[in-house]
Amino acid sequence: MGKLLALALAGIVAALVGERLVAFRNRMCASRELKPKRLPNCHLIKGIEVGSEDIDILPNGLAFISSGLKYPGMQSFAPDKRGEILLMDLKEENPRPVELRISRGFELASFNPHGISLYVGEDDAVYLFVVNHPQYKSTVELFKFVEDDNSLVHLKTIKHELLPSVNDIVAVGPDSFFATNDHYFTETFLLYLEMFLGLTWTNVVYYSPKEVKEVATGFYFANGINMSPDGRYVYVADLLGQKIHVFEKHANFTLTPLKELQLDTLPDNLSVDPYTGDIWAGCHPNGMKLLLYDPGNLPGSEGVTSSLETTLCRNGAASPLNTDVNASPFPEGKTDTSKQAVILMKFKDNC
Ligand SMILES: *[C@@H]1O[C@H](CO)[C@@H](O)[C@H](O)[C@H]1NC(C)=O
Ligand SMILES: *[C@@H]1O[C@H](CO)[C@@H](O)[C@H](O)[C@H]1NC(C)=O
Ligand SMILES: [Ca+2]
Ligand SMILES: [Ca+2]
């Protein structure tokens, strides 16, 4: 009898693990294959070989790039090199990235920048918010950009118990922002277990010096976050949920869910076109390949875009259109970081 019971229990555990494994592989798009394609207007920018995690661009064409992220479980192209913020003037014919100098007093050796966000203050002062992971912890660094000498003046380091595992931020004031936490747990074993079991415990937090609060939760892996140009809507990419969530933002900085855009790929960072309001997402076509990084079988990248109309229409379900035709992972070459999205996947507009 004892043996039978043990056998039955073992069977149940195996079935549960098997079921979780299948669900996990689905969330990771583990069997998805894309044929590499070359994009004629896409070329490598020299000087960012160690990867560019995030980009934010000022209206005058100055692009800020965070580079050199080291993230547990992910391939790093230069594990011993500290991270940096690069500046590139997109108005130039052949723009080249230059490293921004950071004011003294900031601990540069452990700089590990992740998501970034720009905020232009009333006096036209430019603030740069940078998610940082010194010793794999999470902080948000606030800098002021000094254009005259290509430098960043460090203003403060923000740490908070509600910000344990920050991925990306979107600034809403000179010292306030929304941030995504991409894990609930911070301990390595537990955070892998969390992903494997498919817990939806990651969240979005609003931070200001006066108030810090959770404003949305229920994501498998909250990743990129951004805002509509008029500031009325907030967009959150759920990497393993394969969705972009659309929220309405209120004057008291709470969010109410409005809509979800279902994708067939793993969305990472989100950019918003300041003129049209279109969302552009850099995505990972196959999360398993990203995790198991094999230089002989690169994970690739793809982009997804959603027009403002599609994003906001209440009853229209956005669906990716003809992925195969428009898809093209990063061209062959040594710097595939799956961080350089190169394709465009149009949404069918059902509005
Ligand atoms: C915030 O504002 C929204 C919309 O005006 C309202 O429904 C909500 O109750 C407010 N929440 C808090 C906590 O004040
Ligand atoms: C986001 O990441 C994609 C690829 O993952 C990259 O191509 C894109 O430049 C980044 N976009 C911005 C503006 O953050
Ligand atoms: Ca960002
Ligand atoms: Ca990200």
Secondary-structure map:
Layout: H1 2-27, E1 52-57, E2 62-67, E3 84-89, E4 98-99, E5 101-102, E6 113-120, E7 126-132, E8 139-146, E9 151-158, E10 166-173, E11 176-181, H2 188-197, E12 202-207, E13 212-219, E14 222-227, E15 233-238, E16 243-249, E17 255-262, E18 266-272, E19 279-284, H3 287-291, E20 302-306, H4 308-312, E21 319-320, H5 323-326, E22 347-348
Parallel strand pairs: 5-9
Antiparallel strand pairs: 1-2, 2-3, 3-4, 6-7, 7-8, 8-9, 10-11, 11-12, 12-13, 14-15, 15-16, 16-17, 18-19, 19-20, 21-22
One 2-acetamido-2-deoxy-beta-D-glucopyranose binds next to strand 1 and strand 18.
Family: Belongs to the paraoxonase family.
Active site: 114
Binding site for Ca(2+) 1: 53, 116, 167-168, 223, 268-269
What does this structure look like?
By secondary structure, this protein is mainly beta. Helices cover 14% and strands 37% of the residues. The chain has 5 helices and 22 strands. Strand 7 (126-132) and strand 8 form a beta hairpin. The protein is globular, with a radius of gyration of 21 Å. One 2-acetamido-2-deoxy-beta-D-glucopyranose binds next to strand 1 and strand 18. Its cofactor is Ca(2+). Ca(2+) 2 binds at residue 54.
Query: What characteristic shape results from the CA principal axes?
Result: globular
Please identify the structural class as seen in this structure. Answer: mainly beta
Distance between termini?
61 Å
Largest sheet: 5 strands, mixed
Proportion of beta-strand residues = 35-45%
Tell me, rounded to a whole number, the average pLDDT. Answer: 86
- Helical segment tally? 5
Q: Helix amount, in percent?
A: 10-25%
